[in-house]
Design a protein that fits this description.
Strand content: 15-25%
Largest sheet: 6 strands, mixed
Strand order of the largest sheet: 11-9-12-14-18-17
Shape: elongated
Helix content: 25-40%
Radius of gyration: 25 Å
Structural class: alpha/beta
Oligomer: single chain
CATH class of the largest domain: Alpha Beta
Number of domains: 3
Distance between the termini: 70 Å
């Protein structure tokens, strides 16, 4: 017990002072030569021998992440809570202790151990505390889209890319592959990148442009909704309630944040149904994933001379809106009411297949149509990257 107390105190002192000799990690592991304090290796050995807790070992791993020794392009979502202890939840498999012990005894190279831990974190075999991971800039210094209500108190850092990216602590869902992913993400401007943003933003270049948010499509994807009907789980779910939106992939919530944070004005698609002439006020209309629209909306959008259909699968199914009951009802499309009816408007420019299902967007192309432009992939994840392709897309939208 005395040995444990001494070593526990040593861990705390070393964490605060960061004193001692260091181990160099080659450039292949970090952007520049990174240094691992000796106390990290000591902590690994003590944890492997059962002398300190799992959480203390993870604190050392979190140090390596925060100091760019372990490099993660995207921080995985973790459901770890403050109340979890080593007895209630295993965040690190026991077999990792062997590797930690061998590393502490210099039987494994530093690079091999760090690379191994990095791999295990990416594959979510090791879970880290998202609240302990630091962003590149303080949260209070970044700027979020004013179109969304975002509570900074619950945000944790996920990635630093073109935008700073945050998730809500503990707000994970299980993907189709069985791993935990963020339910939704929030984008923010990094104050150190304002010159870059200014090249693609419109806050200093007033335009008669509007981004149309697919409010009705969000409602169609909500549960219970149209997709419960398509899957056979609900016979009467061709009518569903209109609901207040959250940032979801299926309703292009990330793309909407990206454009509005760069100064583009926005309106919900339901405003077009109420007043179709409203689009005449704008020289440029940017459509997101507006999959479900009314006939009135379809006519107003396709009759505008300059529409950028940023997402494939736009204007795919016809719906009706009941403003008294606050519901939408599927009328035609998506193999409804008869199999074989794909686009509900028989729109010859529909580009759903195969472009909607390319969410990687490695080779996005923008092509001209009779009333604007379309893309060849679903770009939602593109806004989470820091690529030349994203910059070119944002510049194209601005200059269109």
């Amino acid at each position: 017990m005395k040995v444990f107390q001494v070593r526990f105190l040593t861990v705390l002192i070393l964490f605060i002072s960061l004193l001692g000799s260091t181990i160099l990690i080659p450039n292949s592991l970090a952007q520049e030569d990174a240094q691992i304090p000796d106390w990290i290796k000591n902590v690994a050995g003590w944890w492997a021998n059962g002398e300190i807790s799992e959480n203390e070992f993870l604190a050392g791993i979190e140090y390596l992440i925060n100091n760019n020794i372990i490099l993660l392009d995207f921080i995985p979502c973790s459901i770890k809570t403050e109340s979890q202890t080593i007895s209630s939840a295993k965040l690190v498999p026991d077999w990792v202790k062997n590797n930690a012990k061998w590393w502490s005894e210099d039987l494994i190279e530093d690079t091999d151990f760090v690379n191994g831990i990095e791999y295990l974190i990416k594959k979510q075999i090791i879970s880290i505390d998202n609240k302990k991971i630091l962003g590149n800039v303080p949260l209070e210094d970044v700027t979020f889209s004013s179109s969304w209500q975002i509570n900074k108190n619950y945000l944790v850092f996920a990635s630093s890319s073109f935008f700073e990216i945050y998730g809500k602590s503990g707000d994970c869902i299980v993907s189709d592959e069985g791993n935990l992913i963020w339910r939704s993400l929030s984008l923010a401007l990094n104050p150190n990148k304002m010159d870059m943003y200014s090249e693609v933003a419109v806050w200093n270049d007033p335009q008669k442009t509007v981004v149309v948010y697919p409010f009705l499509t969000f409602s169609a994807y909500n549960e219970p909704g149209f997709y419960d009907y398509y899957s056979g789980e609900c016979d009467d779910c061709t009518t569903t309630k209109i609901t207040q939106p959250t940032v979801l992939y299926t309703s292009s919530g990330i793309g909407h944040q990206a454009l509005t944070i760069l100064g583009y004005p926005s309106m919900p698609d339901i405003e077009i149904d109420k007043n179709p002439s409203i689009l005449q006020q704008f020289d440029k209309v940017i459509m997101l994933h507006s999959e479900y629209v009314t006939r009135t909306m379809f006519d107003a959008i396709t009759n505008h001379p300059n529409v950028f259909y940023l997402y494939p699968n736009a204007l795919y199914a016809e719906i009706e809106v009941d403003y008294m009951d606050e519901t939408i009802t599927l009328i035609r499309g998506h193999n409804y009411p008869e199999p074989g009816i794909t686009n509900g408007f028989d729109w010859e420019l529909d580009n759903t297949h195969p472009y909607e299902f390319d969410s990687v967007c490695l080779d996005m192309e923008i092509y001209k149509i009779e009333n604007g432009w379309m893309t060849t992939c679903y770009p939602e994840n593109l806004f989470l990257q820091n690529t030349e392709q994203l910059f070119k897309l944002l510049k194209f939208i601005k200059d269109l």
